[in-house]
Give the backbone structure.
Amino acid sequence: MFDEVKFSHEYFMRQAIREAEAAFYKDEVPVGAIVVVNNKIIAKGHNQVEMLNDSTAHAEILALTTAYNAFGSKYLPEATLYVTVEPCLMCCGAMYWGKIGKIVYGTTDDKNGYRKFTSSSPLHPKTEIVTGILAVECAKLMKDFFKNKR
């Protein structure tokens, strides 16, 4: 029973939210991501676009790079990527080429998420997508961040 609760989508999304909070406190857009294989977190990342002065330094890209290095592989079909916000097209492209097995995201992103730009999935055909996990908490971080910017 304990393991079922511990290793739920909510459990892992809370870990991604911790990464998003780290970005928030560094004045980065608060997106966090983790990569999980066999119920073990193998990589973490949060947005570092401002810090690295790199428009590609999204949470998903940084977490995937760490995961590829950890596994010594460019493919992760057994991995699940948890991300607090719907991925953009760039990140979806990276996930497509990495053949990520499952993507779980919290809140939608009507402005920059992949669904804005395509009606079909830009992800690998075998990739499973789960949405809406802790969406309220994930959306609140984004709203609070941008409210402070205005």
Q: What stands out?
A: Residues 113 and 119 are 12 Å apart (CA to CA).
